[in-house]
Design brief:
The chain is α/β, with parallel strands linked by helices and about 300 residues long. The chain has helices spanning about 15-20, 35-45, 65-70, 80-95, 115, 145-150, 170-190, 210-220, 250-260; strands at about 10, 55, 75-80, 105-110, 125-130, 140-145, 155, 190-200, 205, 210, 225-235, 235-240, 245, 270-275. The longest helix has 18 residues, at about 170-190. The protein starts with 7 loop residues before the first strand and ends in a 20-residue tail after the last strand.
């Protein structure tokens, strides 16, 4: 089973853009929901050893893969959108030019069939590291009237996809159902003692707090995974006697609206890192089901 580690990680000392500068191709900034590189690197170095295999079934521009190969691990990713998959390949190529010793690959496809898309990796993966999509309510780039002098908010780079089948476009129940299928497939990829790590944060929509980490925990347990640890990854910087809040504009905006109504709420300044393992396998019997990777449905 996965070992318990420190409960709070200071992963927000540098802004996301600074963490990516020179390490990722500039076009990577267009993705609306990028994993923080410091979270990926810390998770990979904590839960794997050099030479082991890391998988991200929703790899986007390849943050998990890039940080893995820079740390001497090998990596594979699945990405639904071909455009983001091409950027992940470009980022892996850049990592290789910069001396990364691991190797990585990207498959364009639907991660709800992840085990069938990566059949050669069944039972070989030390760590699955991923994050669910959040949708346009929490991501993207903005310029407000404070920046432009023009009333209103201009928003861009806030769409994962224009394909309505993408999980980012689904309602929360359908998103969770699809994410559960992804996690079930990931469980088939894990080697004995392997871990599934999910970065996920709560967020506010129209003032209401959505406990996405709690929803994801329930979905993972339904997929046959066992919670082993829960870590707070700080999105804020630790300054001289104060926190440097790096919360997104959207969550700061939600908090300010709450303050105007007299509600004592705060912008979320952390991301939950949920660590899961598989329960011990039952002794094999003649009636045990075939556990080979499933074929695409």
């Amino acid at each position: 089973m996965v070992e318990v580690t420190a409960s709070v990680w200071a992963t927000g000392q540098r802004q996301s853009r600074a963490q990516r500068q020179g390490r990722y191709v500039p076009e990577s900034m267009r993705h609306p929901g990028k994993m923080l590189p410091s979270i990926a690197a810390k998770t990979i170095s904590t839960y794997t050893q050099p030479g082991e295999l890391v998988v991200d079934p929703m790899c986007g521009i390849g943050t998990t893969l890039v940080e893995a190969v820079h740390l001497g691990r090998h990596a594979a990713g699945v990405e639904y959108e071909e455009g983001w998959a091409r950027l992940a390949v470009a980022n892996l190529a850049l990592a290789k030019r910069q001396g990364a010793s691991g190797f990585g690959r990207v498959v364009a496809g639907d991660a709800r069939n992840v085990a069938a898309l990566l059949p050669d990796l069944c039972g070989r993966v030390a760590l699955v590291l991923t994050s669910p999509p959040y949708g346009a309510a929490t991501h993207g780039h903005i310029r407000s009237s404070r920046d432009t002098g023009v009333p209103g908010v201009h928003k861009w780079n806030h769409h994962y996809s224009r394909d309505r089948a993408n999980l980012a476009h689904q309602s929360l129940p359908k998103l969770l159902e699809g994410f559960g299928r992804i996690l079930s497939g990931c469980a088939e990829l894990l080697e004995p003692g392997g871990a599934v790590a999910i970065t996920v944060r709560p967020y506010r929509v129209r003032g209401e707090l959505v406990d996405l980490p709690g929803h994801v925990q329930a979905v993972a347990q339904k997929a046959g995974l066992v919670l082993a640890d829960r870590i707070v990854c700080l999105l804020c910087g630790l300054g001289e006697g104060k926190l440097l809040n790096r919360a997104s504009f959207f969550q700061l905006h939600e908090a300010r609206k709450g303050w105007a109504r007299g509600l004592p709420i705060h912008a979320v300044a952390h991301e939950d890192l949920l660590i899961f393992g598989k329960p011990p396998a039952s002794p094999p019997t003649d009636r045990s089901p075939d556990r080979r990777c499933r074929q695409p449905e």
